[in-house]
Amino acid sequence: MQTVTIEDFGTSPGGEKAHLYTISSGRGLEAKITNYGAIVTSIRIPDRNGDQGEVVLGFNTLDEYLGSHPCYGATIGRYANRIAKARFSLNGREFRLAANEGSHHLHGGRRGFDKVLWEAEPVSTGKEPALRFRYLSLEGEE
Fold first, then answer.
1. Which of 17, 30, 91, 112 is deepest in the core (most CB within 10 A)?
2. Burial letters for 14-43: b for 16+ Cβ neighbours within 10 Å, e otherwise?
3. Mean pLDDT calculated for residue range 99-123
4. With bands split at pLDDT 50, 70 and 90, how would you rate the model's confidence at 133?
5. How far is it, in rounded angstroms, from Cα 36 to Cα 107?
């Protein structure tokens, strides 16, 4: 049976409740995604013998994601990569960004998309379960 289940995953630094969503295919495929950073924490798939195996590097707790790690399974943004010297020019105007990797801006800054709580909701596609994640990044944020 195809399902989406929701469980508590911890509390964000801002005091908001994070959840862990598990999507099961009913045929041995299982994906776990948290609304904290829209992070894929686990994908388990069956091999040719039907034995489930983990195919994602990730952690089991929110506290581990709150620590330092190389963005395992995270939704990256506002920009995916480095912006040298944490600044750029657009239409003759220079913009300065948060330097969060030495003197550079990496993956959206100190509070990139991987560090915010996303709105998440199970949706029905008519065939299989799915999740929708939403986050509004306001102008000037980071």
1. 112
2. eeeebbbbbbbeeeeebbbbbbbbbbbbbb
3. 89
4. very high
5. 16
Q: In whole angstroms, what is the distance from residue 68 CA to residue 26 CA?
A: 34
| Token reading at 17 | 């409740």
The identity of residue 40, as a single letter, is: V
Task: For 32-64, write each residue's pLDDT tens digit.
Answer: 999 999 999 999 999 999 899 999 999 999 999
Residue among 64, 83, 84 nearest 73 (CA): 64
Q: How crowded is residue 133: how many other Cβ atoms within 10 Å of its Cβ?
A: 16
Q: Which residues pair with 79 in a beta bridge?
A: none
pLDDT score for 110? 82
Tokens describing residue 98: 């948060």
Structure tokens belonging to residue 40: 């894929």
Instruction: Evaluate if residue 31 carries a pLDDT over 90.
Output: yes
